[in-house]
UniProtKB/TrEMBL annotation:
Highest taxon listed in the record's lineage: Eukaryota
GO CC annotation: mitochondrion
Region (Disordered): 187-206
Family annotation (SUPFAM superfamilies): Thioredoxin-like
Protein name as annotated: NXNL1 protein
Domain spans labelled Thioredoxin-like fold: 31-131
Gene3D superfamilies: Glutaredoxin
Coiled coil: none
GO biological process: photoreceptor cell maintenance
Organism the protein comes from: Tricholaema leucomelas (pied barbet)
InterPro entries: RdCVF (IPR029520), Thioredoxin-like_fold (IPR012336), Thioredoxin-like_sf (IPR036249)
C-alpha cells in the first residue's frame, strides 16, 4: 500500500512532520487495511462523523481497548483551506492518523480516482490497493468496529490475529509503561517547534 504514496508528501499527525523514507511508509501502511478519509474540519457533518470515526479507529488500534492493534491504517485527505485548520482538526484525532497536506494536488487526484463527490467519505483499500468498500461511512455508522472484521477477512491479511479486550464497556487500565510502547515514527529533523501559546499534543487518547 505504501506504493500509493511513493514520492508523495505524507505527514505524521499533530506536528505535521514528514514521513521521509520508504521504510517509514512501509511500516505505516503495508499489509494493512487502509482507510482514505476525505473530510474537512469545517464541515458540520464531517465534525460529527469524525468523532465516530475516531472512536472506531481507537477501539481497533489503541491498547486501552485491544491487546494487539489491528492491521488498520488511515490517511486523512482534507478539504481544509489552511494548514492551521487541518492542524486544529487533527489535534483532536488519534496520533496514528496520517495526512496529506491541505490543498495537496495528490488529494484532488485521489478524489477523482475514487469518485469522491462529497464529504465525509471513507474509501477502504486492501493492502494490494484494490478497493474493498467504495464509501464506508454508513457501514461504520451502522456496525462500528465490527465492520473491520469483514474487511479483514476480505483483505486476506497475512496476520489475522486480533485480540479484543474482555469487556469493551469496562476496558482495563493502562500500565505506567504503556506510552513507551506506542508506535513512534522516525521523523526527519525532529519535531517542529510548537507555535508559542499552542497546546502540546492533546489528551484525546488518555
Amino acid at each position: 500500500m505504501s506504493s500509493l504514496f511513493s514520492g508523495k508528501l505524507l505527514l505524521a499527525n499533530r506536528d505535521q512532520d514528514e514521513l521521509d523514507t520508504e521504510r517509514e511508509l512501509s511500516s505505516a501502511l503495508d499489509n494493512k487495511v487502509l482507510l482514505l478519509y476525505f473530510g474537512s474540519g469545517q464541515c458540520p457533518r464531517c465534525q460529527s462523523f469524525s468523532l465516530l470515526l475516531k472512536d472506531f479507529f481507537l477501539r481497533l488500534t489503541d491498547e486501552f481497548y485491544v491487546e494487539r492493534a489491528s492491521q488498520l491504517g488511515l490517511v486523512y485527505v482534507s478539504r481544509d483551506e489552511t494548514e492551521q485548520q487541518q492542524r486544529q482538526f487533527l489535534r483532536r484525532m488519534p496520533r496514528r492518523w496520517l495526512a496529506l497536506p491541505p490543498g495537496d494536488a495528490f488529494g484532488r487526484e485521489l478524489e477523482l480516482r475514487f469518485s469522491v463527490r462529497e464529504v465525509p467519505a471513507v474509501v477502504v483499500l486492501k493492502p494490494s490497493g484494490e478497493v474493498l468498500v467504495r464509501d464506508a461511512v454508513r457501514e461504520i455508522e451502522r456496525l462500528g468496529p465490527a465492520a473491520f472484521r469483514g474487511w479483514q477477512e476480505a483483505a486476506e491479511l497475512l496476520d489475522r490475529n486480533f485480540s479484543p479486550a474482555e469487556d469493551w464497556e469496562q476496558p482495563r487500565g493502562r500500565s505506567l509503561t504503556e506510552p513507551l510502547r506506542r508506535l513512534r515514527y522516525r521523523l526527519r529533523g525532529g519535531r517542529r517547534r510548537q507555535p508559542k501559546g499552542e497546546a502540546e499534543g492533546g489528551d484525546d487518547e488518555e
